[in-house]
Amino acid sequence: MNMRFVDRKQELAQLEALYKQPGGRLAVVYGRRRLGKTTLLKRFAQDKLTVYYMADRGGVQSQRDAMARAMGACLDEPLLGSARFDNWYSLFEAFDRVRSTTSKLVLIIDEYQYLCQMEKGFSTYVQKWWDEHWQHQEILLVLCGSVTSMMHRETLSQSSPLYGRSDGQILLQPLPYQHIRDFCSSGTQQALVERCALCGAVPRYLELLEPFADFDTGLSECVINRLSPLYREARNLLMDEVDVPNTCWSMLEAIGGGARRISEVAAKLELPANQLTRYLDLLRDLCIVRREVPVLEKNPAKSKKGIYVVTDRFLALWFGCIYPYESLFEFGHAEDGLVRIRPLLDRHIEQTFEELCREHIGERSTEFGCVRVGRQWGRHYEVDVAGVDNDGALTVVGECKWSKYKVGLSVLRDLEQVIAEQKLPVATECQYVLFSKSGFTAELCERSASQDNLQLIDDIFAHESRPAEG
Questions:
Q1: Cys-Cys with 167: which of 25, 46, 190, 287 at CB 3.0–4.6 Å?
Q2: Nearest to 323 by CA among 242, 243, 249
Q3: Which residues pair with 440 in a beta bridge?
Q4: Do the beta carbons of residue 143 and residue 116 sit within 8 Å?
């Protein structure tokens, strides 16, 4: 699979900085599948002396033989590739004998978790050889893996033999949302938001959906089609990432179906809430679920107003819209299924737009003087976008409207009324920002022209916010 290389400038810079440092350096690159870890490493290593080995699910001796062949091929040492080694130390020793010790070498072990699964003590072997040899030599060792929980346990946790030895840790995340346009032929805000609603900003998903012109076609052909590559993606992801996929699946089903508080999730699963904490922590570590609190909460970690949402947009689509009617798609009744999920899809796209608007403000946080961006809500109100400063005052508030109608002055008045009635703390220079799918009325545009603290944004993918047209 040759995934297109997009962005990843910070990750490349971090790897380059490690490479340029003298002596041995160890880097850990990890994150869930489909994010482009291997593509990142190939781009980084393209102009360097590199030995690359991708592990698989083979047995221990099979893995050793395959690694020896990869080392021999990369170093053009056929004898190394044809030799048989009875243990890892003898392989590492032979590798050190034939490689150059004067030029910097990059050794990449990809899908590292498979080696750890097959050979329980593999990290110990790597640690011993690192301590005694490689850390004193001109080598950059990169351990890369897709099973986030295992990679953390084997390389970064305090119980790992490699604990404290990594010089760089890269947890790969989905791309910044603006890069969705690199995979989408239509550059309109609506098309890009809908593409994000289908798959988030996960590079491989975006590549798979690139041939499809619109949301409905991509959904029908690439997601709910039983033969499509993404139809079983949610199951495959959980099977790879967690050792309790059934429980986590049920929790995602509950959260995707509208259970937001831990007590509500527990009621859906008919389990005590205290039994779910470790599973929620696991899903949060995997960046699949996150806990949200109102942005004005002074102590978010202890807030009793916390709710849980599915972070990953593809999984949010699957569990919130498709899974409740999966049996219809499984048995070929796609048209009936689409009719039933249409209201759910509309709400999912709307929520995606709100998420992207908050991300848009988050990336301009310095401009707005905020240190935290999220939502603000109470029993009888909600503000879609809210940013607070170090003093806990709102420096930006906003509303998002995903509608075929233009946003008018009433939306601004309603927002101002909420702020006043709820007595929310507002900074002196607080900005009001309105986001719209379909533009703004002439009346609201006139207000914006005369009101310095009011911004109207009708394209969050534009490089710079432009004046909205009436």
A1: 25
A2: 249
A3: 407
A4: no
